[in-house]
Amino acid sequence: MTAAAPPLLTVEHLTMRFGGLVAINDLSFTARQRQITAIIGPNGAGKTTVFNCLTGFYKPSVGRLTLTPPNNGGCFLLERMEGFRIAKDAGVARTFQNIRLFAGMSVLENLVVAQHNRLMRASAYSVAGLLGLNRYTRAERQAVELARYWLDRIELTGQADWAAGNLPYGSQRRLEIARAMCTEPCLLCLDEPAAGLNPRESAQLNELLLDIRGQHGIGLLLIEHDMSVVMQISDHVVVLDHGAPIAEGTPDMVSNDPAVIRAYLGAAEGEALPPDVAGGLPTAPPC
Predict the structure, then answer these.
(1) What does R_g of the chain's alpha carbons equal in angstroms?
(2) CA-to-CA distance for 86 and 94, rounded, in angstroms?
(3) How much is the pLDDT for 138?
(4) Are 26 and 59 in a shared domain?
């Protein structure tokens, strides 16, 4: 039996309240290194709120969020950190439901600007850059090399000089993921990366995410409504409903869990499931 990958992110008793509204209620799970962990659930289940807590947009009402990067020798308590330090120091990168590229910049520039923190340190916060010192020119060259590496990985080398806003939608999605990877994270959080993609683009996305997991060995945390993506690439799935965890396990386990099926169908507890879904959650939305 293959040994389990080491824990990367440990979420313990996460609770998020907005006044009298409990958006997340006592959520605990572990995301592991070199694995894809998916968080799924019906609309309004609290999935994006989880991401907002992990990345510092919200401070949890209760809970501990422990990130243990490999080869670091320590850990980060994300609930105690400012959002910019979660990205800069802890190595957590994120994409959003709505694409947030710099539309007027070139494709290549979008990937270079993602390395801003590294370049600013190398330039001694602009001094070495203005003087053209070797330390900055070397860092700049490395930044361009890394950007071109990711352009090749997402098959956009030929469009390097295009304005990012002129790319097809699916290419913009892949570029946003590549931009996040240019920060060299240990945990990549993807908020509905398959939203708006056609089947061919979804297949390209699956291939890219599996490649990132396999070649770069980082952990990926995924929110996604497209079950064809979740079930094909996830190693572990956590299911939320109205902010509370209702199931956790492998894709096969959760897709056949009656509580999960009822949550997606809106069926009441004890209500018989329709024959066409009693054997498992559909892996694609109905046409």
Answers:
(1) 20
(2) 11
(3) 84
(4) yes
